[in-house]
Amino acid sequence: MRRLALALAALLCTVLVLAALLLFIALRALTPASGEWRHVVQIGPWQRELSVPALIRVATHPLAASLIDGRSIDTSAGRWQLRARSDGRFEADCAPCSLRLRALGSAPLTLARAHLQARRAGADRFDGTLWLGEGAHSVALAWRAHLTANGLVLDATLKDAPAAELVHVFGHDIPEAQR
Predict the structure, then answer these.
(1) d(CA 112, CA 172)
(2) pLDDT band for position 119 (cuts 50, 70, 90)
(3) Is residue 39 part of a domain?
């Protein structure tokens, strides 16, 4: 009986040491390099700076898809509901969503809905489509992005859409559209 208790205690200690080692390795891998894009997260009572590029790589890895599926993220734009699809794509919905563009002034544009589809297109490369608005009155932006240590280099193209659709999506926040 004593041998069994010692064996179980040794097994428990081994499992705890391995779990601590795994946590240490994971946190070390997510530690931002000097000058790297970073974000502070709360882990229980502790705060820790993590590398955003590393978090994006981990979150979009096929093995991590089930970890983000069904979760939500609160951002300055609104709450995004995340889904991982079986074909490797990721989807996110934000409704309502606010969009701040320096080129359009300090006031945010409020959108009824934003729907994002994304997929990995290679090492640190992503592409997809962002739909703004709802249903028949939505406009689509095709985009490609390259993840760097300092941020995300984004190239987006607005797909052909009648001006009336753009006014419908953005018009309630643009004073000139009210005339």
Answers:
(1) 11
(2) very high
(3) no
